[in-house]
Amino acid sequence: MAVGQDAGAARPAEEIPHDHLYKVTGLSSTNLQKLAQEHAAPEPEAADFEEAIAATGYGKFNLCLMLCSLPAFFSAVSVTSSTSYIFSRAQCDMNLSLLDMGTVTAMTYGGMISSAMVWGFLSDTLGRRQIMVWGFFCSGLVELTAAMSQNFATLLVMRFASGFLFNGPFAVLISYIAELHRTELRARVILLSSLFYTLASTTLPLLAWALLDDQYTITIYPGYFVLHSWNIFLLTTGLVPLLTGIVFLCLPESPKFHMSRGRNDEAMATFRKIYSLNTGKPAEEFPIKKLVEEKQERQRGGVAALRGGGAQLAPLFRAPYGKWLLLMCVLHAGSMFGSNTVRLWYPHLAAMLGSDDADSLCSAIAPSAPPPSDGGAAPPCLPVHTDMLTYLQSAAVGAGSVLTYGIGGVLINRCGKKLVTGFCGIASGVLLAALPSLGTSSVSVVTVVTAALALTALSAASMSSIAVDLFPTALRVMAMATFLMCGRLGTITGAVAFPALIEYGCIPPFITIAAVLGVCGCACYLLPNTTLKKLE
């Protein structure tokens, strides 16, 4: 019985005799095989990521992507800058000094620094999309908790936690946007995303004007739980990252990430979906039929992925990437030391400029100490008066970058990214150095600050574009997280150093900021030229 089964199983494998094939066709079996191969459909040529993403076109998907990222950039502004607008109201409710205000601002960036490596590693191993969804959503929950703070210590801890959670998804977002656009559009799209940041910087002071212009309180538990106008303002801004996390549920995983992990089938499905949305054609008509194998073995997930963290991190600090990472981090730290210090302190400075006893920038920043009240006791706390003009000045400073980004988007591919980065850094340093010499006109102060911050914003956007181009996919988010971490370290230094330098007068803080920006601008010319460079 077994012999019969073996014979039956072997029967389909029997070959047709060569002489029979020759009698029927006049060709040997070898010649028949060659003829079949010649007439068979050619194997489709494998396309790399750049070819595939270019074939998807530009259309509805890209527009939806940018619209979905708009609230993320508003979240970036609100998480880092919202406390700058509440100091004029909260300083008396919490008895805040200038150093306390700087510390609250610095704590947000301290949380971002402490989580930079963790988020970068998780994103490069577990994917972009889920990091953005959960990171933004949880950050929003913490922001809502921080908005209900009733004392300085609670506000300090919640600002740290918010920064810890927000750092990861925002660093991922920059790489995510870059990976979903073709080479010639990539730098311009990153500039456009920075324009969103500018729009958010314009909207936030207008929201502050609407909610903070009047002093009002909502008493829930007398003496223990009272919501002031600044609490309501923080509650409103805290809803944005919460909604951002929900919005990102609608976006796909990065196909570049799929390819770098050997998951070409999933990457192809994403490419086809993008192609269909952009062109309106069926997904089956996507011209690319095969993708190159960027990685032969599939990357393991979960705990196994976490165990590979050391091996993944090591190449980032070795040649050829180590020297560029070090230079980029130093430049970004200096750039953020200058730009974010002025940006974060300007709302409070604008409020001080608008006070009745301020006749110049220096008299507003470093006023003479008020005489003590009768009996030698400390004078009562008087909140800084703010009006519509105060917030409109901050909005004008935020809107000033729009024209700069428009010009930068045209010139960046013609002049080169590092030229734009260096020139803007040097020019902003010159403007800020001249700031203490201005007269009593608040218009001149607003004009100079607006121009300086617009230039530093364009410099930072170009620098981010260079950083995206310099590192391969497997290291990109980790590199960007480190890059942003160093920038935030510069922001922390500036936020705390600014009130300390004011103790020595009006000129030292601005001269220090200008010198740092000028040196960093000159050092930008040491960077490699990455204009129109394809992603690795």
UniProtKB/TrEMBL annotation:
InterPro entries (alphabetical): MFS (IPR011701), MFS_dom (IPR020846), MFS_trans_sf (IPR036259)
Domain of life: Eukaryota
Domain Major facilitator superfamily (MFS) profile: 64-532
GO molecular function: transmembrane transporter activity
Subcellular location: Membrane
Membrane protein topology class: Multi-pass membrane protein
Transmembrane segments: 63-87, 99-119, 131-150, 156-177, 189-212, 232-251, 324-346, 391-412, 419-439, 445-468, 480-501, 507-527
Keyword Protein transport in annotation: no
Keyword Membrane appears in the UniProt entry: yes
Keywords linked to the UniProt accession: Membrane, Transmembrane, Transmembrane helix, Transport
GO cellular component, one term: membrane
Full protein name: Major facilitator superfamily (MFS) profile domain-containing protein
